[in-house]
Amino acid sequence: MTPYYDKHVFFCTNQRATGEDCCNNRGAQKARDYVKDRVKALGLSGRENRVRINSAGCMDRCDDGPVIVVYPEGVWYTYVDEKDLDEIIESHLKNGKIVERLKI
Asked: Does 49 score more than 80 pLDDT?
């Protein structure tokens, strides 16, 4: 069975009410919005081009955060800035090559 999307990216955007460390405290929502906009600008988004960017609740990897996971490969990444996110977009989402230095 062929997956509906070639790449489905989930950003943990969880915000803990208790003030504990979480992905959203590290700019996850802003990062997700950035990647969604970049993927769209590059013509990679939507059913035709098969890349989907989504938000997720807690993915229980707060110590590694912020985190994203790319399916169908099930590759987990952490990132620091837009440069890291651009590398994931270019290497993994466009060209299918895992970014080993960001993999967790």
From this structure: no
